[in-house]
Design goal:
Blueprint (H helix, E strand, L loop, with lengths): L1 H30 L1 E14 L4 E3 L8 E13 H10 L5 E4 H4 L6 H26 L5 E3 L3 E6 L14 E5 L2 E2 L3 H9 L6 E8 L2 E8 L1 E2 L7 E2 L2 E5 L3 E3 L4 E3 L10 H12 L9 E4 L2 E2 L5 E2 L4 H10 L4 E5 L3 H8 L4 E4 L2 H11 L2
Parallel strand pairs: 3-16, 16-19, 19-20
Antiparallel strand pairs: 1-3, 1-4, 2-15, 5-14, 6-7, 6-13, 7-8, 7-9, 9-10, 11-12, 17-18
Helix pairs in contact: 4-6, 7-8
Amino acid sequence: MILKMSSRIRTNKVLSRIIGIIFIFYILIHFIPTPYYVMSPGIAQKLSSVINVEGGYQHKGEFLLTAVASKKATVWDYLYINIFSPKGKELELMSEQLPEGMEMQEYIELMAKMMEESKLQAQAVAFKKAGYNVEVSGEGVEVVEVMKDGTAAGNLQKGDIIIEVDGKSVELAADAVNIIRNRKIGDNVKLTVLRGDEKLKFKLKTLELEGNPGNPSIGVLITSKNLNYDIPRKVEFKTDNIIGPSAGSVFALEIYNQLTEKDITGGLKIAGTGTINLDGTVGQIDGVEQKIIAAQKAEVDLFIVPKKNFSEAEKYAGNLQLLSVNNIDDVLDYLKENNE
């Protein structure tokens, strides 16, 4: 009897140890962070519930924004993604997401500010297309940080105000970003800069920075200086937890649709992505695969993609119809031709 009890005690101790090890292992792989982020398909959100134009029309068709979801990767995430390569999920080093010398909170604040500028540009473009007079003004593009690995290093300085890029006047940070990002890597970009009372000219070559593959850059972080605008009607946005400028083009389309009596979607469900410039240019974005998957899950009829992202989008589109565009007029012309 004593031997049996002793055996049971030993068995229970072994089981307890095994359970303890399993519990510790579970905690380690599910809760211990890594230096990576998991990028995965995010939402495909109907913009009629996000944007409300004062006195605007409501339509049957829908424009949808698509987003990329991002979270800190655990050891489990790292192992699972590397072993099974799940569709639409990828790992990115935190250091590759952040500009050099910038903390995560600073980066989030910068992206939030770019989102606000994107909303402004979308309103300006949409109201102008609908025949309204819109006043948008600023004092140029302020350099917030100069990265040591960019061609701006040794040329531009923190506090410089960029007023022209390739001969085009720029009043918003997104204007400058869109012009530069639509160049090829290795192209020269001409800048006119105010430094105090002095006006300076620079010719800088675009390059590919570490952590930002495929995107031309000169290696600066910028923001709009003293931005002012006058929009004829009030436009309300509900964009909680969404940051960055990549929904600008679909923002503009939704606002324009609410300003017109006829539904420009023709009753279709249309998703898309792409930044928007004041002249209506639709600029390239990141996270194409994740946004395509989000649109597919939402069962949309059409996906609008910037021309510079089109070849990548084709890899993941499957049966999803893509519309490659350079500017907002490309979208409006296509919808007019196909919905009459």
